[in-house]
Amino acid sequence: MSEDDKSQLDGKPKYRRVLLKLSGEIFGGENKFGFDPESFKKIASQIIEAYNLNIQISIVVGAGNIIRGQMGEKMGIDRATADYMGMLGTVINSLLLQEIIEQSGYACRVMSAIHIPAVCEPYIRRRAIRHLEKGRIVIFAGGTGNPYFSTDTCATLRASEIKADVVLKATKVDGIYDSDPMVNKLATKFDSITYSQFLSMQLKVMDATAVALCMERKIPIIVFNIYQEGNLKNVLIGKKVGTLLHP
Fold this sequence. Notes:
Strand order of the largest sheet: 4-3-5-2-1-6-10-11-9
Number of domains: 1
């Protein structure tokens, strides 16, 4: 019997430390824009359910529900400026998610790559690891602190720095397809795919720079549907959920 099968049978987690990447659009609800309180609560409840498996959880949050790159371009905003606006948007989302998690009785820290000491801690790698070791949920905000890098890249960078066992990419679809399943009803889903195949096919579900970094560090990525209740826990105990990106 494989280790995955054993994890599924006894309900024990397959991973010790994980990096969960949440798209900002998830927090916007059906409109994918603005703040939907129920979406925040549903995501927080899944995070807490995963935490109760005795897993160290770190999170990177996007800001697509506040500002998107295309919006900046349409308004004639310089790309670097628009990216900095997006980084600040991730801080807003992170603070709200932190508040909901803490109201449920769980310790949570927001650490930002952009220095905003009045509202959150600065990102320091060793301090982040210490928070995780002490049983705190850690949210990494502010992206990488530099323009021109996506929050996907931030997620894989932080996963590398804290030595996470896996990157969990939470999306609105149930895995990686050979084309957009929202557009092409005949799109084929992959149960697993190598980094090289993903990059050569130029698939768009995750930033290529992020995938290349995980390929170098040999960190697996699981792309799954966060909207389906219980999916995060199922991924963590080794159930066949979503698509596995691997060496």
